[in-house]
Write a sequence for this structure.
């Protein structure tokens, strides 16, 4: 590996063909098992991350169908109560921790480096580590489900149900360690995104020229950094209560069960915005492209993102309105919960204004945006309703709440995400998804979704509680539940068609050029799919819509070395070039470190001493990771 | 797309220092997320305190001797830490090598005292919630001292190898210096919580 004696090569010395060849060589990932395990290419890892998250989406969808099958009629005995408990817990845990947050971060892992015009994400080995850890956490959860030891305490694992007294066995420990896996993975990506956006933007990409999607991921990353430590401290305290007899949540010894709810929701509410803000960014990328004008009110949209991020930390108590808190607290949190509708409203009016002033071309991504606008507004309205204490008290723990948060999460987040997949698929794969099937997908999902979830509002108002495995015929909920279950099949067909379209289009979709939608942001300046080095030369940005400035010619910089992985570091606000920084080569250490972490976390469920001896291989792997390799990348 | 070269970056350094270095920002970001974990843990302490009829619960207040000694050691380490940072900026290899050796000792010393400090808490983690949060706070901070010690020790070895005289390594040293400030700074509120709040 020691080839520092090799002569340095600058891109100034090479012709276009030689330059591309040399770059491809320097940044290559061999198509071997070794290459698979060692790659640090953000595009390969991003693709993996996205694909894995969608597999978890499909699995979570199957769980939802099982629940709908069970609830289709009164007094059903299709699932046992115990299995049902595991299934609704798995559905929530899987969708929140293994699908929603990871898929948004995964999109960012793929797109942010391209959109800011750099060659790899910051800390690419950490990125590889993050993926392996996420995969291990997901596998652990699903294997535990197969072994009939999956968590059965709800996705929020409230104590005392999850505590040592009532949560016998290892099910709650699996939940707690799954949190550790996924949160460490999510925190790692958040760090990478923050530093990529701060320090690796193309020269000239000043703050007011950052694409809105990149802004949204920056704000999201800060939400992750500030909220996820709360759930990690909480899940650690829970596992300590369960394994070594601490008393954090034991009222008999000075602990408190509501402490758990505070800690959980201090994370849990920002979590909603961790899922929603990236969707805001996606919508703000799709609309301008399909109406052919820049977003209306760029500054207002960005400020609304930041405001939402700040307010997200002042809402958590609205999940706890029925636990008996002081009235002054309830009033405050009602006010703040309603206040967050203001930045959401600002964004919606900016999108409407952009649509109004442009010439909309109704392709699938834009259709998803319209489905999003309608569904999300309905979810937002019921959100304002449950922000009010008297109404929340009435509908708490009923299907009204289930309806509300599916409107917000699927309508507000999954619809934009699927639109984003249709939008960026040509970039990632080099081929289009089917426009014809895409319209069917939007239609089926929109109709199927509303038919499935709207009646749940009514079921909730009729008193049907959440998390019950069955109900008596005398409650007269049977007809509506059957309707919901049949509609869920329609919704599932929409998702199935989406997967069919995506898988088919990977090989058979019509080829896409580098910028098939005539979009304005930098990811469309390079070929589809992008080469392993992203850009032959780092772009120089002179406006907020770089590719609309001059669609034929891209201003670029030169002078980077190509015999080592080199990229450009720029200043925080003005994006002035500061250094030619190297980017690490492929490495096996992140995989080994993730393996060591996995062994430590899983065995610690069974013995606290595992933390001690398990940290030794982890330390060894980390030393191997950080030890200077003597490659040209190490030159300072 | 056609490209038009408008900027030449060949003259830029191969590695930026401090705010021009991604790892410097990475260290800050980690300080932010670990700082929020500390804040949450202190929040738990204050929350449990607000509920308890008496604080500490069923135990004498912790004996402040070892904790105060840790505090003194950490405060004393600030000056050599600052010097190492300065020497790293000047890329003075010899001084950085010895300075890092001294800082390794400053990492070990509080850990030795900490063994006694856990005993001086005068309560076990499984006695009650008060004991639990004390051990959590102290454990969390100990984990940070340990992490930084491991980092310092590895850097110490690296600085004596052929990889030592390299701008990139001096940058690593600066990042490590920055992180040590964080380890010292976080001890102040935790020390105050553990030893002085029960005596207020």
């Amino acid at each position: 590996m020691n080839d520092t004696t090799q002569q340095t090569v600058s891109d100034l010395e090479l012709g276009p063909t030689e330059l591309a060849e040399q770059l491809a060589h320097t940044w290559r990932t061999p198509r071997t098992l070794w290459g698979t395990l060692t790659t640090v290419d953000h595009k390969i890892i991003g693709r993996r991350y996205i694909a894995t998250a969608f597999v978890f989406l499909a699995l979570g969808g199957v769980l939802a169908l099982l629940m709908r099958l069970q609830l289709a009629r009164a007094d059903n005995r299709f699932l046992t109560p115990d299995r049902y408990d595991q299934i609704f817990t798995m559905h929530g845990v899987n969708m929140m921790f293994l699908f929603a947050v990871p898929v948004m971060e995964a999109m960012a892992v793929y797109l942010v480096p391209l959109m800011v015009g750099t060659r790899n994400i910051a800390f690419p080995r950490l990125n590889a580590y993050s993926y392996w850890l996420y995969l291990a956490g997901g596998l652990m959860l699903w294997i535990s489900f197969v072994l009939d030891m999956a968590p059965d305490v709800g996705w929020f694992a409230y104590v005392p149900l999850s505590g040592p007294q009532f949560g016998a066995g290892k099910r709650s420990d699996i939940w707690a360690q799954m949190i550790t896996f996924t949160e460490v993975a999510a925190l790692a990506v958040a760090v990478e995104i923050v530093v990529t956006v701060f320090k690796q933007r193309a020269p000239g990409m000043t703050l007011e020229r950052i694409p809105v999607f990149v802004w949204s991921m920056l704000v999201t990353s800060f939400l992750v950094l500030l909220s996820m430590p709360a759930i990690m401290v909480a899940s650690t305290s829970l596992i300590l209560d369960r394994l070594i007899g601490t008393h954090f949540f034991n009222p008999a010894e000075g602990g408190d069960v509501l402490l758990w709810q505070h800690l959980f929701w201090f994370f849990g509410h920002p979590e909603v915005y961790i899922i929603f803000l990236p969707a805001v960014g996606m919508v703000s990328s799709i609309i301008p492209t399909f109406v052919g004008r820049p977003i209306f009110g760029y500054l207002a949209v960005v400020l609304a993102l930041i405001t939402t991020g700040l307010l997200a930390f002042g809402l958590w108590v609205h999940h706890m309105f029925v636990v008996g808190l002081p009235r002054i607290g309830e009033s405050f949190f009602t006010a703040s919960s309603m206040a967050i509708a203001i930045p959401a409203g600002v964004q919606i009016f900016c999108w409407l204004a952009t649509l109004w002033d442009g010439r909309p071309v109704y392709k699938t991504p834009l259709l998803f945006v319209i489905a999003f606008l309608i569904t999300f507004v309905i979810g937002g309205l019921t959100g304002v309703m449950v922000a009010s204490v008297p109404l929340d008290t009435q509908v708490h723990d009923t299907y009204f709440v289930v309806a509300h948060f599916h409107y917000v999460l699927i309508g507000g987040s999954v619809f934009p995400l699927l639109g984003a997949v249709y939008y960026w698929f040509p970039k990632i794969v080099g081929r289009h998804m089917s426009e014809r099937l895409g319209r069917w997908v939007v239609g089926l999902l929109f109709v199927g979704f509303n038919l499935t979830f709207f009646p749940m509002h009514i079921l909730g108002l009729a008193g049907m509680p959440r998390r019950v495995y069955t109900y008596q015929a005398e409650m007269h909920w049977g007809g509506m539940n059957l309707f919901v279950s049949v509609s869920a099949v329609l919704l599932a067909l929409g998702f199935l068609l989406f997967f069919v379209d995506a898988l088919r289009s990977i090989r058979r979709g019509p080829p896409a050029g580098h910028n098939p939608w005539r979009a304005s942001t930098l990811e469309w300046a390079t070929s589809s799919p992008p080469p392993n080095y992203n850009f032959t030369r780092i772009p120089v940005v002179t406006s907020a819509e770089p590719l609309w400035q001059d669609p034929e010619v891209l201003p670029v910089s030169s002078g980077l070395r190509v015999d080592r992985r080199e990229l450009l570091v720029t200043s925080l606000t003005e994006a002035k070039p500061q250094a030619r920084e190297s980017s690490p080569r492929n490495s096996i250490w992140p995989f080994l470190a993730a393996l060591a972490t996995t062994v430590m976390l899983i065995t610690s469920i069974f013995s606290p001493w595992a933390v001690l001896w398990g940290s030794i291989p982890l330390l060894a792997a980390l030393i191997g990771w950080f030890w200077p390799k003597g490659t040209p990348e190490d030159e300072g | 797309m056609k490209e038009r070269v408008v900027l030449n970056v060949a003259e830029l350094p191969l590695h930026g220092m401090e705010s021009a270095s991604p790892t410097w920002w990475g260290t800050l970001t980690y300080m932010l997320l670990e700082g929020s974990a500390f804040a949450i843990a202190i929040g738990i302490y204050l929350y449990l305190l607000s509920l308890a009829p008496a604080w500490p619960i069923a135990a004498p207040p912790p004996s402040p001797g070892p904790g105060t000694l840790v505090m003194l050691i950490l405060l004393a380490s600030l000056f050599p830490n600052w010097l190492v940072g300065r020497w790293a900026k000047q890329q003075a290899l010899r001084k950085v090598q010895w300075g890092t050796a001294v800082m390794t000792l400053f990492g070990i010393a509080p850990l030795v005292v900490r063994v006694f400090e856990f005993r001086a808490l005068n309560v076990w983690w499984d006695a009650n919630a008060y004991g639990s949060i004390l051990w959590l706070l102290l454990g969390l901070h100990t984990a940070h001292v340990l992490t930084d010690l491991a980092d310092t020790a590895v850097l110490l070895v690296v600085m004596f190898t052929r990889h030592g005289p390299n701008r990139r390594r001096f940058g690593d040293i600066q990042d490590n210096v920055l992180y040590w400030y964080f380890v010292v700074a976080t001890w102040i509120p935790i020390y105050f919580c553990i030893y002085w709040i029960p005596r207020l």
